[in-house]
Write a sequence for this structure.
């Protein structure tokens, strides 16, 4: 519990330093968060509309001393994401962003998790570099990449064009039928 309190206080201090919130507002945010049932301080700040997403990403980048990535709207290589077990990615709140020669870039909500790089290296023997993002967005992206059919993920070899066209015409027909 002490680590969570330190994180919350330190992140609030960064938001004050960056003039995103005042010191008084920061103290109020911390007190309100203690009474809230949100999963994370970041989610609390965003859902309550206390800070803008970009400001919070910058603060997280300063806190963890790694670049921040807005996972929402980012594109991931489906085959790279799916080269790791879904449960592993969800457990550690991390998603591989790209593999560039010797370096695997991973977005996680907490780059300071104990031996997280080593855990990724068990699957791919690359140097791991971290970026920070929001846990909720990371988990949503992981689920999106694992819960979609291969054709939806964009692998042209997996698309059966005749079946796809039939499914589209069936969908359009059902929409037209519902409106009539």
């Amino acid at each position: 519990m002490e680590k969570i309190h330190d994180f919350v206080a330190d992140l609030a201090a960064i938001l004050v330093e960056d003039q995103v919130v005042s010191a008084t507002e920061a103290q109020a945010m911390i007190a309100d968060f203690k009474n809230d049932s949100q999963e994370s301080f970041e989610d609390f700040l965003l859902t309550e509309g206390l800070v803008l997403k970009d400001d919070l990403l910058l603060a997280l980048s300063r806190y963890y001393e790694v670049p921040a990535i807005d996972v929402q709207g980012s594109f991931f290589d489906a085959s790279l994401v799916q080269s790791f077990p879904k449960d592993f990615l969800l457990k550690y709140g991390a998603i591989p962003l790209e593999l560039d020669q010797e370096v695997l870039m991973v977005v996680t909500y907490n780059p300071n998790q104990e031996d997280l790089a080593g855990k990724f290296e068990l699957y791919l023997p690359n140097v791991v570099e971290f970026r920070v993002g929001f846990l909720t967005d990371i988990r949503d992206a992981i689920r999106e990449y694992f819960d979609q059919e291969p054709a939806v993920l964009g692998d042209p070899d997996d698309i059966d064009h005749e079946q796809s066209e039939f499914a589209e015409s069936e969908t359009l027909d059902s929409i037209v039928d519902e409106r009539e």
About this structure: Strands lie at 94-100, 103-108, 127-132. Residues 151-180 have pLDDT under 50 and may be disordered.
